Fold these 2 entries.
Entry 1:
Amino acid sequence: MIHQEIANYRLASQKLLKQNQNTPQEIVQHLGAIQAQDYAMAKWAIGSRCNATEKEIEEAINSGKIIRTHILRPTWHFVSADDIYWMLDLSRAQVKRLFTSSARQHGYDEKKLDQVNSSIEKLLSGNNHLTRDEIMQELNIKKASGDLSPVIIMMNAELEGLVCNGKMKGKQISYALLEERVSKPKTTLTKEEALAKLAKRYFESHGPATLLDFSWWSGFPPTAARLAINTIESELYSIEIDNQKYWFGTNFTEVDNFCESVHFLPAFDEILISYKTREASILLEHQSKAFTNNGIFKPIILENGKVIGTWKRTIKKDHAKIETQFFSDLDENKKSTLFKAIKPFENYLETKISIK
């Protein structure tokens, strides 16, 4: 393996290189966690890796097989119901530290947050799914410009394992009690066991990747990441390229270095966002066109594992409109060939697509 091949190997690890028969929940469980603040695009992150339609993925989320909550880093992720409790237990403290100061500035110390959680538990008890606005209304917390109280309250409730996403209410996401959606496991992991499990899951599904890549993705500092890797070192393969060690799973399958592939991937997709540095997939000169310094990622077009442009979609009444922007000029024949790769997205949406 050489540095130029890493992107193609990552496609294989992330289940993008070949078609598979995995369910949406299996895709999420394989990846460990999928960043999901952009709900619509996060569903396509799952759909682009299996044959499920958007409706089928929505059903997996509505039924509680896939959970959307704050975990790992201070943003939403999709996680499998099978992983929600141990992963929450592992990452809760580190994420809470990042918003504790803001919570106090808004008048919420631990005692007050516990009181609010008790009220939320009563509101949602009995599978009563409510939107954030409905919860705030019941708590008599009025909307105010610049007031982060609703965000702080619900993020804390998620991190404490009290709530997670409920069933969709039209186009609005609701909240439900986590224990009413997913039963608590009978056994628990130590922090060391959980971090080692998370590291193994990451390198098997995202490798080849570095220690700093795992540290970034997991939210844990490099010292903790190193300890986790030391624990599972015998369960991984590694390779050193340009004095940098890359780790990957032992079940890794050799891939054709010249395998042709084109993918239209969503904003915030794991293929870019899950790595500390992204030069393996996108040239430095193009990175500002695909993501910003403050963490906004655009939907991307990959050819053979390399980002060659961006795209956006507009949902119409009877079709979806796709507009593309390539980093270099392409002739019409080349574009026509690339545009064939939008077919999986058309199948996923179950609607016609116009693309230009």
Entry 2:
Amino acid sequence: MNLRRRPVVPLLLLPALLAAPVLAQEKKPDPAKQLQQVEKDLKQADKTKADLDAKAEGLEKELADLRARAIDAAAQQRTQADELARLEGALGDLGEEEKARLDKIEADRAALADLLGALQRLSRLPPDTMIAAPQSPSDTVKSALLLRSAVPELKTRADALSRELQGLVDLRRQLAEQKDKAARAAESLTLRQKDLAGLVARREELSKSTDSERTRLATQVAALADRAGDLKDLIEKLEAERKAEAARKAEAERRRLAQVEAQREQRARDKVAGLKRAPAEPQSAGILGGMVAPVSGKITQRYGTVDAVGATSRGLTYSGRAGGPVVAPADGSVMFAGPFKGYGLLLILEHANGYHSLLSGLGRIDAQVGQRVLGGEPVGLLSGDGDPTLYYELRRGGQPVNPARGLAASDGKGQG
């Protein structure tokens, strides 16, 4: 009778097989040790965050200085743009005066030429001709008197023509000087635009460097906190303490961030207040209540007037210089920044007491949603082509109000 033989396990392998379950159990992770490691990582993250805050403190001081310098540079650029516009207008007036003088000189010159021609022809008449066609004595006397009076008149006209020509020389010299001033003003304006662009770029770089690092660190801390929470679910003894500590840290962080933001705004305000000359608002801006005109230029459409298509304007339309800076009319925060149908690039700022500013027609926006801005701080540029316009609308409680009334600190209702 043949029986199948069972495989025989060598005796040397039995200890290893018996120890295998034990080794598998030893490799199982220990939640308590993992929790200790996570808490260690959280402490390290807190230390890194403290170092980042110390570094950010220095950057915040530089950022406040940059914001103040940007406000001052924008104000100077607006002043130079107004001066350049004035010079260009003066050039136009001088050009028209030059044309009028040239026309008058040409007319005087033609009249003088006719008079000279008549005298020359009279002087070339021979005596024989006068004998052949004798005149009466009275006519001869009249002709002599006329000829005698024509000579002083001729000299008077010649002297007047000489004075007109000298005046034309002086006018052209003045015109050349004005053109030279306008060229220097345009060159200075270009340099101001470059300086302002550099300040705005540096401001954005500083803001993004600190904000991105804080965002990354906050994400890392949140992930560690979630992991710690999962582990502490296995250790109920520490659950209540973890939640209370997390809540305390969250509240402390919220208060710290609010304090940092308040200090950042106060630094910027102190810098602006410390400038030798604060940005002044043009008299033609038509905006009161401490507000700043959003762009340098003339107002082509005022609030409440009817335009060419019969629509009533609900804001102000400015005609600005190509590539000119656009600034915040008052302190506030950016609610919207980007393209919007029918408005082009649109920027919406939220102010105190229920006010909002709408700026449309920008060629470029240099502000981000959530960013705090001060009155007069650059937030964008006009289009660099042609004769750009900017539409500015001030709203309160969702209703358009007259920007000439400025910002009032009343109950927040709309006003006409």
